[in-house]
Design goal:
Blueprint lengths: L1 H11 L38 E3 L9 E5 L3 H9 L6 E6 L3 E3 L4 H4 L10 E3 H4 L2 H4 L4 E11 L4 E6 L11 E5 L2 E4 L4 E2 L7 H4 L1 E2 L3 H17 L7 H7 L1 E5 L3 H21 L8 E6 L9 H13 L2 E5 L2 E4 L3 E4 L4 E3 L2 E4 L3 E2 L2 H5 L10 E3 L11 E3 L4 E3 L12 H20 L24 E6 L2 E5 L10 E4 H14 L3 H17 L7
Helix pairs in contact: 2-12
Bound molecules: flavin-adenine dinucleotide.
Subcellular location: Mitochondrion inner membrane
Pfam family, one: Pyr_redox_2
Keywords: FAD, Flavoprotein, Membrane, Mitochondrion, Mitochondrion inner membrane, NAD, NADP, Oxidoreductase, Peroxisome, Transit peptide
Amino acid sequence: MTWLRNLIHVGSSSINPRTRNTSLLFLPTSLKHFTSEPNLQGSSSNIPRYSGLEPTKPDEKPRIVVLGSGWAGCRLMKGIDTNIYDVACVSPRNHMVFTPLLASTCVGTLEFRSVAEPIGRIQPAISRAPGSYFFLAHCKGVDTDNHVVHCKTITDGAKNLEPLDFKISYDKLVIASGAEASTFGIQGVKENAIFLREVSHAQEIRRKLLLNLMLSDVPGVLDEEKKRLLHCVVVGGGPTGVEFSGELSDFIIRDVHQRYAHVKDYIHVTLIEANEILSSFDDSLRIYATKQLTKSGVRLVRGVVKDVKSHKVILNDGTEVPYGLLVWSTGVGPSPFINSLQLPKTQGGRIGVDEWLRVPSVQDVFSIGDCSGFLESTGKPVLPALAQVAERQGKYLADLLNRIGKAGGGHANGARDIELGDQFVYKHLGSMASIGRYKALVDLRQSKEAKGLSLAGFISWFIWRSAYLTRVVSWRNRFYVAINWATTFIFGRDISRI
Ligand SMILES: Cc1cc2nc3c(=O)[nH]c(=O)nc-3n(C[C@H](O)[C@H](O)[C@H](O)COP(=O)(O)OP(=O)(O)OC[C@H]3O[C@@H](n4cnc5c(N)ncnc54)[C@H](O)[C@@H]3O)c2cc1C
């Protein structure tokens, strides 16, 4: 019965930061103390009591609450001085995804674990320090007047496990909850297409691809149906769509031809793009990529998707494109959570920040990564949704918060008179994209118009691989990635459907 007592205890009182109790995440509804929605706008007396982390006392370390465990949030947490602050991270996933290599996991070039880094390894205090936590949950609302965030645990649909509402008081809040795939309101996208943003998406793509390969081998399946099952359609010709198409064509040329010889002539990749593919790259690089992809068997279609049905995509001109696997990669936009926040916004709906990445008009709230952008009043452009932006913002903000903490401004409302120092300045380092068959594009210019190095081919591919191998977050994952590349080269990709 000890576990039952623990659950009741957690459900009825605040979490004591000195006695960790992870059972908070597994509290069944029947034992939950309060389930009603909080009054986010109202006075604190109207807010129903929840379990939660209470405000820190002046003699305790101030608490930074980080929403999100992506590029921005993880880089920030890595840089936070945990002698000054406690850190509480809230995120629906307990790891960071090294997104530039995610496409390679869809076809088995890399294993899923090679691109996922557990948060406890990025900021060890989260696993060890008595006042630092990770909560597998999503944030539902922010009460900036009372310095509180309201959260709900993730249960992944597990039976007999109802999500639990809880709240966390913050001294400093960093919103780094990223963006979501844009569907432009096109019907059927969410229901039928797979996005490529999380490891779970890559797993879904790999299982579907292998399922379709095996189904098409079954006796009695008509040719027309085989063609449909093995038609992989990618919508969106940005770097992610192109890299995924390149990976697929490599998989087909090497692995499908050897191991699914019966159906090798039926499998095809089509990449649909409304404008030019890789529009952010130099013209010569784009032309090179187009030629290479076509040579590898990728069919490039210029078109706008109007409707998505369960087995076919319908374009604006009425063309119907049957598919067995549909991957959607047409850019990102603000998530419903970001839309719901009553904070200043940019034109595109991101959280608006000033030159120090603070959210003006509220105290102690910062925002970084894909969910934020400079406000028009700063005179700076909204930065692209890129890992290199998110990562550098995370590093900058960690340094800024450490400085504030050292100067004694770590607690809520304590930083008003503190000199903030240099503003955040972004310098673009260039872009890279692999296009399959040991070829890649490297564009080291700061903008499309600027002068600088841009090259394509095998050397670029070598640069691409070396650059990402050095950028992978930990030595452990660097080792995994190197071993995966070596085994794929020697033995081919893993085609077991697990
Ligand atoms: C396949 C792919 C390839 C890419 N390749 C490149 C590349 O080569 N180079 C490059 O510069 N960029 C690349 N990008 C873009 C880059 O990954 C993003 O710009 C970057 O991830 C943004 O970082 P972020 O921390 O803002 O958001 P994310 O990394 O998306 O992280 C957001 C985090 O917030 C969490 N979250 C969401 N909602 C909530 C909530 N309500 N409460 C709490 N937490 C929440 C999410 O679970 C996640 O942990 C790629 C993206 C993809 C998808």
